[in-house]
Amino acid sequence: MKRIRLLLADDHAILRAGLRMLLDAQPDMLVVGEAADGEEAVRRAVATRPDIAIVDLTMPGLGGVETLQRLRRELPTTRLLVLTMHEDPGYARLTLAAGAAGHVVKDRESGTLLAAIRAVHRGRAFVQVGAEVRGADVAADPLPRRPELTRREQQVLELLARGHTNRQVAGILTLSVKTVETHRARLSDKLGLQGRADIVRVAMGLGLFPG
Question: Which residues contact 86 (CB under 8 A, 6 or more apart)?
Fold first, then answer.
């Protein structure tokens, strides 16, 4: 039987060790590499060419979303599965938009992760939102990519995530309040932001705001 080749990217060494034991014990799975941050994840993935990269959403270095986008761009045949502590459905939308095919919460039973790996390897999506699991055939329907942000939009997003008002952002960036409002509206359109929680979540995912 050809085994599913896996890369583990998570900054917690103990968690990686436990996952490696679990996955290598499966007759159809093999861990071919590990990484403790986003940059290392990209390097190790390029070196090992895994079938699936299992990626934590919040690691040092590259933001989780940027890591997913780099992996998607440099290794288009490698499927991406996010393993995260975040249960908020907004995180699942964010990771899918960045190129992931799966989203699993860390504190679930190990069988959920194994099912997600096998589903993603077969070309299906596996999205866990709370206690609910959603799946769909995505092989012929590429996942959307997050729209690119300008440098100014990134600056506005970061400042908003840190709790600044539109007027304060305008003062910091030497812009008019009207211009900041325009940037904020564009960010909402591009990223589907509904409120402050979405702004913080997306900024964290992009590595602009560590939380």
Answer: 57, 58, 105, 201
Q: How many domains does the chain have?
A: 2
Tell me the CATH number at 99. 3.40.50.2300
- One domain, residues 40 and 77: yes
- Residue 157 and residue 119 share a domain: no
Residues 119, 158 within the same domain: no
Residues 6+ apart with CB under 8 A from 178: none
pTM: 0.66
Summarised one tens digit per residue, pLDDT across range 26-76 is 999 999 999 999 999 999 999 999 999 999 988 877 777 788 888 988 999
From CA 163, how far away is CA 7, in angstroms rounded?
36
Q: Where are the alpha helices (DSSP H) in the chain?
A: 13-24, 38-48, 64-74, 89-97, 110-121, 151-161, 166-173, 177-191, 196-205
